[in-house]
Amino acid sequence: MLNTFVLNQSQLPALATGDRVLVNSTAGLSDGFDYTPALTVGVRRGSFVFVYIGPNGEAMQDELPLSSYGNQWNLHLEDGFLVNTPDGILHAYSKRDPEYPGISVDLYRSEDEQPIGLSMTEYIPGGEGLCGWDPNNPGLARQEIAEVPVQRIETEDGKPVTNKYGITPANAGNYRISAGLVTRAWEDELSDVDSHRRVFHYGYDS
């Protein structure tokens, strides 16, 4: 169920002893591996050393040359982790976005064809606007302004504000949201994926 991503060769030395990886053969190896779960031993004498459970349940140790990495074999990491709940399986995983790094949480249920997105916590750079404007829903802009605490509002030139009085959808373009963490959560995540609430965190930076 978990997505995986392949490691670059330069990342292999950073793996710690005991880190879980998936070993996959691509071509030419005498011992084939098919996303075989393994535990890292480390990089030794130009080879990646690992231990895994053999076909008969026995503990095995093997090593693969770094010189053939990417051509004959590679390593994958599972992206995130799973938690079982009475309402389904929660899957937490990296957004894998270098500009907006963060974590997403999806819900898996047997009756759904696709996972349901529940929430996302991410870092946003400074400069995001306080609100948008939807002529069919003028109250939405006021709601979006209300979601942003004064501690995360600054003027266009980066100066903090002391209160939100006087900030309206009409002049919200004179302000922006400061850099930091935000959590986005979908209340009716199955039927209305466009509507969500935002929590802008600021206490950790006080």
* Termini separation: 39 Å
CATH hierarchy: architecture of the domain at 4-78? Roll
Topology-level CATH name of the domain at 4-78: SH3 type barrels
β-strand percent reads 35-45%
Largest sheet: 6 strands, antiparallel
- What global shape is seen? elongated
Strand order within the widest beta sheet = 1-6-2-3-4-5
Q: Name the average pLDDT.
A: 89
Radius of gyration from the alpha-carbon trace, in angstroms: 24 Å
By DSSP (H or I, 4+ residues per run), the number of helices equals: 1
CATH classification, class level of the domain at 4-78: Mainly Beta
Question: What does it look like?
Answer:
This protein is mainly beta. Helix content is 5%, strand content 40%. The model has no long low-confidence stretch (mean pLDDT 89).
Task: Summarize the helices and strands and which ones pair or pack.
Layout: E1 4-6, E2 20-25, E3 36-44, E4 47-53, E5 59-65, E6 73-78, E7 81-85, E8 88-94, E9 102-108, E10 116-124, H1 138-147, E11 153-155, E12 175-177, E13 180-185, E14 197-200
Antiparallel strand pairs: 1-6, 2-3, 2-6, 3-4, 4-5, 7-8, 8-9, 9-10, 10-13, 11-12, 13-14
Could you list some keywords that capture this structure?
SH3 type barrels; six-stranded antiparallel beta sheet; elongated; 14 strands; 40% strand; mainly beta
In short:
The protein is mostly beta strands and 206 residues long. The protein has one helix at residues 138-147; strands at residues 4-6, 20-25, 36-44, 47-53, 59-65, 73-78, 81-85, 88-94, 102-108, 116-124, 153-155, 175-177, 180-185, 197-200.
